[in-house]
Amino acid sequence: MIYLPEILSSIEDPTGFLLESIKSALLIDDVSGLVSLLDGMDDTSSTSLAEKLESDPGFRDKVFAGIKTVTFNEAAVELFEADSIEELSRRAAEIAPPESLSSLAAYLQAIAGRDPRFSDDVAFVTLKGKRIYVRANVNIFENGDKTFAVNSFTNITDWYNDQNALAAVRTRYALALKGSQFGVWDFDILNQQVIRDAEYHRILGYGEGELDSSVMGVRALMHPEDLSDLGTMEEFPDSFDYEFRVRRKSGEYRWVRLEGSVCEWNAAGEKIRAVGTVRDTTVERQQLELMNLEKEIFKNASDGTSIESLISLVASKIDVAFPALRCLVLMLDDSRRSIRYAAAPSLPEDIRKSLLGFPIMSEPTTCRAAMQSGSFQFMHDAWSSREFSSTAAFCTPVGIKTIGSMPITDSTNTTLGTICLASNDSNCGPPEDLVSLERVARSLALVIERDKQRDRARKRELQIQNQQKFESLGKLASGIAHDFNNLLTVITTNAELCSFNVPADNRVANDNLNQVVYAAEMASSLCKQMLTFAGQSKSQTQHVDLAQAATKVASLVGSATKKGIHIDLHIAPGTPNVWGDVTALSQVLLNLLTNAVEAIGESGEVQIDVATKQVDQAEIDGFVFGGKIQPGEHVYVTVKDNGAGISPETLRYVFDPFFTTKSTGQGVGLATVLGIVEQHGGAIDLQSSVGSGTEFTILFPALAELQPAAEKSVSN
């Protein structure tokens, strides 16, 4: 057996032979002086040494002076781009740039602690100024009173640059994913395990490590209705694109879209790995649902769908678009004070019905705040708010904790209603896509506005037709009344003349003549009513206090009505006078109130309101008979009953003279009312439906001066 020492002894320079046999750059340093320097220091921690190297140039010079290069190989000369061994030995201190000081501090600490080995990746600068990265492996040993360091350097510059480039790519990739809000998943198909990145966890509202990585954990978070479409994860397709609902940690469901493909197979051709992305598509789904809803609104409106059915459709579709919220659509009545329609698919029916007629614009509610401001309003503490006490009173019984309100406003910025979104989760915030919700509100307002315009146009056309019809009937009635009155005068005169020639004891003849005179007088009274309808009755005009007239008529009729019928009179303070004939205007009130009482039957309620209001042209156009009345301040009288109501067929003829549905009626009562209203420059409207009662509204121009009047309430 040949021993290594025997071989080395036959070589002229055995140390040089070994150095050159090693392909890595190799330097052997005598660091005895460095050991002495470090032993004289109090603190040789890595942090302290790094600070001293950076702040004390003199200390750095002592460190490099304490390192004496004994020898090195040609690989070291090439690595540091020296022209010769002598040059590298002379300029060895130049190869350590400032950023390598932290590695130098760790090297010094290893020497101070007599650690036999030290390893680190270090940045150097060659003698020609080229930056390189090396992996330094240092072995420290003592020989007598000397300490040596054998330094082996492997050039890792290419690997280091590749790693930096890869890290930069990964950073850009991570930033791109974060910016696009894509999460990444990696699925082990054979073991049925899923690895998710931080963004995936964020989408679901979980911290890293909180999610079950098994397939069962994935399925547990899915909406039950979406599980059947997923199939089995064991039969994973080559490519994957699926949208479904997933439950977040907070309990709410969000729409997500998973995309990916198989990326790895085993030797048997089995799929073993798939990767892909996940993205929250809830807002996109909401936008799509609401965009489709806009189309449905216009389509249903063109098909003639009623407003009540339309708002029910809107509420149902918004419920689908916002699964974590409950939708409530409220529409105001024509006075824009109370709720006329309410649609709430996800709320109990009795709650919805309780909202009808609610004076929402006079109560402290979030909805009122939204409608008054014309912008979306949101409230977190809906169940305990003191500012919006009526909202709290409504929300508490149904468990609503947060509520938002989007106003429904037409092109003239007139508020028509509101779309409310409520949640039982106190942490639930406002919808993310308010723009699409506002577009839906605008679309609904536009349809309602168009419907009202068409309705006003129809009413205006009907109003013109009625006016023309009443003018024609008035001329006919006037002519007949005048001619008939002349005939009645002849009959009455001759009957009275005959009575003078009949003996007083002839009772039969006298009775017959008296009946002729009475009948003629009754016929004459009927002629006067016909003339009133035609607007040709004689009247004595003056300032008339309608409030006082209504009080007298209500007392008169109330004293003669059945006990089960209540007449409630409400007179607003400061109601001004009107100009007219007090007897004729009292006749109008008497006819309307008598009709209301007769329509009720045995028991019910009649409500009379006298007040003032500002009336615009659109409202006047909606009246059955608008006459020549102009927009402005008017005194209005409403007589409303809860009787049987009037059918649409009958409504067309109620103001026609001699039309009646009563067996004992003459059919001139409402015709007389219309004639008097027209003669006084007023307007009249009628709203009625079978089973809902009837409401008459009369407008008269208000006089400029106000007459003091206390609020009155009269009941029989």
Automatic annotation (TrEMBL):
This is histidine kinase. CDD domains: HisKA, PAS. Its EC number is 2.7.13.3. It is an enzyme of class 2 (transferase). Keywords: ATP-binding, Kinase, Nucleotide-binding, Phosphoprotein, Transferase, Two-component regulatory system. GO terms for molecular function: ATP binding; phosphorelay sensor kinase activity. It holds the Pfam family HATPase_c. It comes from the Bacteria. It catalyses: ATP + protein L-histidine = ADP + protein N-phospho-L-histidine. Residues 240-293 form the PAC domain. PANTHER family: C4-DICARBOXYLATE TRANSPORT SENSOR PROTEIN DCTB, SENSOR HISTIDINE KINASE. It comes from Rhodopirellula maiorica SM1. InterPro entries: GAF-like_dom_sf, HATPase_C_sf, HATPase_dom, His_kinase_dom, HisK_dim/P_dom, HisK_dim/P_sf, PAC, PAS. Residues 479-704 form the Histidine kinase domain.
